[in-house]
Amino acid sequence: FLAYRGVGSCGFVNFDDDAYIELNPMVNQGIRSAGLVWAFSGAHAGMWHPLTTLSHMVDCEIFGTRPAPMHWENLGWHLINVLLIFQVWRALTGTTWRPALIAALFALHPLDVESVAWLSERKNLLSTCFWMLSIGAYAGYARRSTGPRYTLVLICFALAGMAKPMTVTFPATL
């Protein structure tokens, strides 16, 4: 928590936060029917990521355009990801100390700190969450070969892709 103690005092970053949130009326007005259609209709700021856009809309609906609570939410997503990484790797390896080390390194890696402190990088946090859920669901499917688990893999993979297009590489990791 010491590494992230100042996150609440961070503002918007002048690189993408204006286009994604601060100066984007479709996002900063919160949840509206036109905004929901817009989120799925095409690329925004060069990317198609409707889940990330909807996440920002919900933030603006709840917090307005105040960045501090959005940063704290990013920290919450990061904490969820750290716990997911630990849990999934523990399930895959059957050990505790190695997954704990992996999760700790992930928690403090500078690129992950950037995702917490830069609101536009919510896409990394969301895609990581659904990526890890997909890996966990796939591991469960591979052990039991049950259809519903595979459906969960596909749903989580689709959500990861709607958060950040880079997740198209997910099948290669399997």
In short:
The protein has 174 residues and is an all-alpha fold. 71% of the residues lie in helices and 0% in strands.
Bin the helical content.
over 70%
Shape: globular
Specify the structural class.
mainly alpha
Mean pLDDT: 91
Report on the architecture of this protein.
The chain has 174 residues and is mainly α. It is built from ten helices and no strands. It has helices at residues 17-22, 25-28, 33-41, 50-63, 67-93, 97-108, 110-117, 122-144, 147-163, 170-173. The model has no long low-confidence stretch (mean pLDDT 91).
Write the layout of secondary structure elements.
Elements: H1 17-22, H2 25-28, H3 33-41, H4 50-63, H5 67-93, H6 97-108, H7 110-117, H8 122-144, H9 147-163, H10 170-173
Helix pairs in contact: 3-4, 4-9, 5-6, 5-7, 5-8, 8-9
